[in-house]
Amino acid sequence: MSTVFRGTDQRLGRQVAVKVMHAEFAADPAFVSRFEFEARSVAGLKDPGLVSVYDQGIDGDHAFLVMELVRGGTLRELLRERGPMPPHAAAAVSRPALTALAAAHRAGLVHRDVKPENVLISDDGDVKLADFGLVRAVAGTNSTSSSVMLGTAAYLAPEQVSTGHAGPASDVYAMGVLLFEMLTGRTPFTGDTNLAVAYRRIEEDVPPPGSVIAGVPREFDQLVRRATERDPADRFQDAAQMGAALDSVATRLHLPRFRVPAPRNSAQHRSMVVPPPRPQPEEATTALSAARPDHDADGGSDSTTVLPAGAAAAGAAGAAGAAGAAAAAAADAGMAAPEPWAPGGDGPSETRRYTAMHPRADGADGVDGVGGEYGQQHDAAPGDAAAATERPYDDTATHQRRRSRRSATVWAALIAVLAILLGVAGWWFGSGRLTTVPATAGMDKAAVLAAVQDADLDPEVRGVYSDTAPVDQVLGINPSGGTRVNRGSTITVSVSLGRPSIPQITGKSTFDAVMAQLKERSLEPTRGSDEYSVTVAADHVIRIDPGPGTVVPVGSAVTVTASKGPPPVHIPDVAGKTPEEATKLLADTHLRVGGQRTAFDPGVDGGRVSGTDPARGKVVDADSRVTLIVSNAISVPDVSGKSPAAARSALADAGIEMVDGGTVSGTDARAGTVGKTAPAAGERVDPAHAQVTVYVSDTTVVPNLVGDTVGSARSTLAGLGVDARVRQLLDSDNSLVIAQSPSSGTHIEPGATVTVTAVP
């Protein structure tokens, strides 16, 4: 349809791509008018994913379009180099292409020819969509070439094949096929001809990419299925809807951002390589210098120049071959072709052709029969010229006649064998290889199969549902009776299966599988409103209407209700629970733990869950992943009453640094031991700066001594570093203390005196 050249905008000094349409299109006024309209429409679009259009016009017999030059390659070349793409790469290519299509759809334009060759990838990683409106312009031309198909067969939507109509949903179908090809490395339909490939999509659905290559996420299978529904009404209605669905899938799968690499060995990259100068062999240079007259140094001589055999031919062929291959590759890929060498420029000049002179193989140059095959005999004595001239030729002649007779006999035998073979082949290709398909009208199934086999043909039974014919009644054969076909050909025997029935379903019946079963039974399934279910997995069938087992007429409508999986759920409160308890609670709510992370929470002990991400109370889809936030707080141990050294050791074991806070009065601790800490025992500190200030008591609390013996009271006070003064009638350690001063609970300094009164 067109050829692309690389050119230079002399006014603005920039490189551009010039697409020149074939001459038969420029000769058609309808094409010129529509091509100009489409070019103006596309030029008005503004989107980074579109190849910019700079100019359009007619030059003689050529309609042309001046566009932005994208340095890089095509998606087709990238797929050939690297094979199928992972989901994140396929999404990175599809996203800008869909954005570009959405801009066109909003402007009322339809691309009609979305395919890998029209998706350009620049060396900077930009993805751009090319060739907008060109197919629509060609659709309006009067050209009737049988080799031109409006669009590419592998990417046509069913309605383009059946009715020729194309709308935004047709571009969505092509994008679905393109996404399938990126994920799997091949197109969904194949066939012997473009027509066969195009018509398969009318009867068949595009298979899920995951059925072709392992590891494709289910979300991409669903995206491709929705984009390639055979009925345009069931697809995304335009590229904007499909782009939004792709973004939703990418977010759900946490797909990373990806810079699409340009193909390394693209046609454009090859076209930029300048072929090296053709080397001149030293012998050729010498021969040229010697053979060319001095007065003709400018190359104007008509004389033949002698070169060594093959030298000039090899050099010329190499230079021409390299340039030709690059230009051909660029033209085939729809990319900019290499610029031709300008006459009189810096490039190589026109190839000069030389005549190579080859010596005879026998090294002789005799004349008039001397030398060569009938030349001088090598067994003659030197100088014996008479021996050579007087030697008779009779023996040679006799030998030649005998050899001729043998050759004639051999040739006659070969001709006879060839005639026999040709006769047999003529019979075989004329009528021997053919047989007649038998007439089977009125026969039952067994008789039809026997008749077909007797005719040296291979019967293949094909069940067909019928409202009128009983089971196993023969409905017909294909080819029909009386047709001449090759022996061994397959004859399809259509046999009635009776009226279809609704298939049984289970909780494991997938929506796609049930839809396929219904279509195989000649029914018309439609998708009802999807429903939430806690018992039936997503994309599996909840119910069918009419119900399973019901016998219905051929072509009956059947409504299939699919499951959306469990309904959305609220994230429960799992604060204060262990990770194991929180995981079980989330699983009971149809949620999954997607990981854990730690954070300081002063209200939750370390090792227990302090929260979730998303937070509690948020509404999320069932089977969503939830991250547990686990507290890493450290609880302050109780070191009251311990010596400062023992307190430091206990805090260090807990991962806490002790800070000396000095002394404190009025605590219950004995003087010289830890009176209090800040934070207090039982409180929680952040491990990032875990410190506890320790205060040492400088007073002692007087204990309750009433009721103790004098000896016990003295011992208790001595242990506290306090002196004892005893008032008693008899000096005995067994006397009972009946009073004390100061009273119990009083704070006194070390070395103070406590007076006790005892009896008797």
CATH class of the domain at 43-51 and 70-267, named Mainly Alpha
Contiguous uncertain segments of 5+ residues: 137-149, 279-398
- Overall outline: elongated
CATH superfamily (homologous) name of the domain at 43-51 and 70-267: Transferase(Phosphotransferase) domain 1
Structural class: alpha+beta
Distance between the termini: 131 Å
Number of helices: 20
CATH architecture of the domain at 43-51 and 70-267: Orthogonal Bundle
Put the structure in a nutshell.
This protein is an alpha+beta fold and 760 residues long. The chain has a 4-stranded antiparallel β-sheet with strand order 1-2-4-3. A 3-stranded antiparallel β-sheet has the order 5-6-7. It has a 3-stranded mixed β-sheet with strand order 9-12-10.
What would your notes on this structure say?
The chain is an alpha+beta fold and 760 residues long. Among the domains are: 43-51 and 70-267, Transferase(Phosphotransferase) domain 1 (Transferase(Phosphotransferase), domain 1); 435-498, Trypsin Inhibitor V, Chain A; 511-562, Trypsin Inhibitor V, Chain A; 569-632, Trypsin Inhibitor V, Chain A, CATH 3.30.10; 635-698, Trypsin Inhibitor V, Chain A; 701-759, Trypsin Inhibitor V, Chain A (2-Layer Sandwich). The protein has 20 helices and 30 strands. The strands form eleven sheets. Strands 1-2-4-3 form a four-stranded antiparallel β-sheet. Strands 5-6-7 form a three-stranded antiparallel β-sheet. Helix 4 (87-106) runs antiparallel to helix 10. The longest helix is centred in the middle third of the chain and has 39 residues, at 394-432. It is elongated and about 165 Å long. The protein starts with a strand and ends with a strand. The relative contact order is 0.05. Residues 1-258 form the Protein kinase domain. Residues 259-305, 359-404, 596-616 are annotated as: Disordered. This is non-specific serine/threonine protein kinase.
